[in-house]
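Duplicate of earlier report; H15 domain-containing protein input re-posted below.
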Amino acid sequence: MALTKKASNSSHPPYLQMITEAIISLKDRSGSSQPAVAKFIEAKYKEFLPPNFKKILSVQLKKLVKSEKIFEINNSYKISANSHKEKTVSQKSDKKAAKMKRPSQVKTPEALKKNVSTTPGKTGGKMKRLSQVKTPERLKKTKSSAPKKGKK
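Output:
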């Protein structure tokens, strides 16, 4: 019965954190093997780990592969892009929250409606036909034809 309960008084970080830290620190291009990850974690958290640490590590690695937080290539493990993006997205959202506008600067829908002009022109009204729009070619034609008419 004591085997089914988790040790809540463990003083080491969660396995996900330890494994990702190991993979990032090892910086192996082809991924980090299970023995390499185990060696790194043992060196860093030796006094906090249980005696059956290597068995727990293999179970946790399989669990993380199944949940797609890390992936396995040729018995080596890499951090998936999804878990890496989640960390960066959460950091960016924290920065955006810090730069939020003050309530006095946020415009209400009524204030936005007041800024919209109802007169014809750039923002509203009838659209001009293409023949009425003065394009660079049309401007050249009017400039070149105007002096000829004046000379006759």
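Strands lie at 32-33, 70-73, 76-79.

Merging into the original ticket.
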